[in-house]
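The protein record filed below.
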Amino acid sequence: MTNPSLPLVHELIRSACAAPSVHNTQPWSWRVLDLTTIELYADRGRQLRATDPRGRDLAISCGAALHHLVVAAEAFGLAAEVVLPPVKEGDDLLARIHLTPGHTDERSIEMLAALENRVTDRRGFSTWEVPPARVLHLCDAATEWGAHARPLTDPMARHRTEELLEQARRTQAADPQITEEQRIWTDSLDSEAAKGIPTENTAPRPRAGTTHRPSRFEPLHKPASAGVHTEDGPQPDPTDGLVAICTTRDDLRAWLQAGQAMSAVWLRATLGGLAATAVSQVIEVESTRRLLQRDLFSYTGRPQILLRVGWPEFAGPPLSRTPRRSLEDVLRR
């Protein structure tokens, strides 16, 4: 059994800040009220105003950080109770976390290791298929966080999703405000401010023999690479898994819950040796989001973000880590 202490609380916040966030914006800040209570705030100065005007991506990113903190607390022998107060779009206070003495076990320590090893991998996956049963197992991790995860395994549904993903990518690529915002958070990498994504992580050169789907950081037209499909060439049957994180509502609270669920699925994937990357463009573009909801979910669920998972190609050097904000930078006084 562990009692909270200030160094331990700070370590929990550092672990939370390892969470994935759109464009590595890390749009969160924290206030330590006392040794048992932490508050999570949105850092609106890091919101992507062109790409994410409503703050959905921001809230999902903060939800992932919230889940990361819970995972870290359990590994250090604390119980973390998350309280989501009544919130509406534009609110800064997002959640309170109450810490009490708890117990740790082997599983919680393994989850902390997954947290520390988790990366966003855009290099493409090996051609080994992710079995549908494994994808279903990943989806189970979302259920206790107020959202649900749906595997997109039906060939027709998968084909339609890939069509909408490409449509959203092209729509955003034609928007000068969005492309400039993306440039600011990639080409203008500021390591001291922990701002942006290293160039080698945005669109790394795909490896031969991997299946690869283009990301938002890749040009619309690019030369063919060995083992990678091109825009005009035949697309291979997908061997990766695609998971949709959905909620019944579509508000700030639901976005936070979607972020927690995404983190839970992602960490379970990492623990199982899978690589993952978040796919949000089809949700960011309102027209493709409506079509995705209509064609795949029959309006029974609100898709909030997709996760693409696959077996990593182990040859070659590991990905470099994206920079992280310092503890001093994310703490509110």
User: Anything to note?
Assistant: The domain at 132-310 is CATH 3.40.109.10 (NADH Oxidase). Strands lie at 28-34, 37-42, 78-83, 93-101, 148-151, 241-247, 275-279, 302-310.
